[in-house]
Amino acid sequence: MLKNIKKFWAKQDSLERKLFWSILIVVTGVASFSAIFTIIEGINSAASLCSVGCSVVCIMIAFIAVQTGLYNQCYLVMCCILSCFMMPLLFLFCGGITSGMPLYCITSLSLIAFAQGRFKVPAFIFSLGIQSATFAATWAYPDLLVAQLDHDAAYLDILVTHLLTGFTLFSIGTFSLRAYSHERENTTKLQNQLDHLSMRDPLTKLYNRRHLLNYLENAIWNRRQDFYLAMLDIDDFKRINYTYGQDFGDEVIRAVGHLLQKNEDEMSGECVARYGCEKYMYVINAGSEVEAYAKVEAFRKAIRNLTFENYPQVSLTVSGGFVPCFSRGFADVKQMLIKVDSLRIEAKQQGKNQIRNMVE
């Protein structure tokens, strides 16, 4: 039984549904207990039938909600029935102001606050008007009350009502906060996943071009003194892709990206990104240009050692451009990118498998 309940609860995939079931279960339980208490208290049969009616209404609303999927609308209808009809009738049947019914009336009004949609405020105003009119009518015409409780019965009824309404509000508040917390965790998790996907290239899992450009503009440019930028391009990739197929071409792109990522030191602000089809960008943090250039050269040489099980005859090389981010010739990131790309093209034109820098 408990397992089925947990399974059912897990299927409630929205805050709206979780609130609906939490509140409906609590209200149904309290209404049922109230019906039992009115029978024990012996007020009158009408009061007992009305309390039972509250439970029946909740069960019917639950059935309709499951069948139609209109949880919010069904919840608002339930609140209106309770506030506009059931509570005023119980107020008349159970002793009016001498009983604990005013507490039930206030609780029924507060439940409307959990509804959603444009009809929530009108429903609250209408329910408040109905209950206020009932209070005023019984004040002007006391004979409208079916029963009036004596001193001891009134205290007992108010005590029980106080306990039940306190339990109701506490339970609903607890369930609501828990459901909201769970919904917020899911939303945060989804947002983190979306943020991750928006920054990453789906094939290589490296940072994508959009993130790199933002990173250069917002993180590197204002503290570029220790940073260098390399653009790297797989030589003859189109021939490899055409000869061995696109699947193998994707494998090559992933392998080169993975090898380049091994050199990345994110703690120092370095960033490796896939810039285009077979192009990569490497933002390097180093104490000198010689040190930074050595990192790029080490990667270029390491590419020659890449092997592929299905195509052992394939040997890769890369060509690229290398620039210091702090060069006086760059007025902005755009000029820096244009320069490093021109050096990459020079490397391609002058024999490939080399890294061109600004000094050469």
Which strands sit side by side, in order, in the main sheet? Answer: 2-3-1-4-5
| Oligomeric description of these chains | single chain
Strand count, sense and closure of the main sheet? Answer: 5 strands, mixed
Instruction: Measure the end-to-end span.
Output: 77 Å
Question: What is the general shape?
Answer: rod-shaped
Total DSSP E strands: 5
Helical content (DSSP H or I, runs of 4+): 55-70%
Determine the mean pLDDT: 88
pLDDT < 50 runs, ≥5 residues: none
β-strand amount = 5-15%
Order of helices and strands: HHHHHHHHEHHEEHEHE
Count of discrete alpha- or pi-helical segments spanning 4 or more residues: 12
Based on helices, strands and strand pairing, what is the structural class? alpha+beta
Backbone CA Rg: 36 Å
Description:
With 360 residues, the protein is of the alpha+beta class. The chain is 65% helix and 8% strand. It is built from 12 helices and 5 strands. The protein has helices at residues 2-11, 15-41, 45-68, 71-93, 101-111, 120-140, 151-199, 209-220, 237-244, 246-261, 289-303, 333-349; strands spanning 227-234, 271-274, 279-285, 318-324, 355-357. It has a 5-stranded mixed sheet with strand order 2-3-1-4-5, sandwiched between helices. A hairpin with a 4-residue loop joins β2 (271-274) and β3. α2 runs antiparallel to α3 (45-68) and α4 runs parallel beside α6. The protein is rod-shaped, with a radius of gyration of 36 Å. The termini are far apart. The mean pLDDT is 88.
